[in-house]
Design brief:
Ribosomal Protein S8, Chain: A, domain 1
Length: 183
Amino acid sequence: MLIVQDVDLTPNPQALKFVMNERLLVNATRDFPNKEIAEKDPLAKGLFEIEGVVGVFYMDRFITIEKRPDTAWGPIQKGFVTFLKSFDKSTIPVEEDLPQMSSLEESEMLKQINDILDQRVRPALAGDGGGLQVVDLEGNILKIRYQGACGTCPSSIRGTLVAIENLLKREVNPAIEVISADL
């Protein structure tokens, strides 16, 4: 049975990270910025049934829930714990082998970028209840999409984006530009 072991605040005031007692996914991340996208995922779909939930992100051993600004956390947390008591973890859709990035070719630069993101950026974002997906690399322009708590967090749009760009300029290519696919 899935049990919440800890609840962590995130930099996003509308998102909480729930640390679970069991691994949910090994390699994948699942990001559901709205209820319609969650229709085929029983975990996310069930969480959207809780009044006030507007986003669900999960990976490894945590679930990040984002709420409407006018909704209190108490009822959401109570609904979440109640939902987990009857949720069957085996209904979570099986992970495919490491998900392939859409139609992106794995160029040497893209491989280097992903290695740096995997080692130095994604773990930090996961610590705050979020993630990062590379959407496209065209020339020296890298498009990324924030996931989970990072998706609507003001600091991810400003500070983190600049920090990622500066890191990649130092480590990969001084001409690289990083933009958010959501802007």
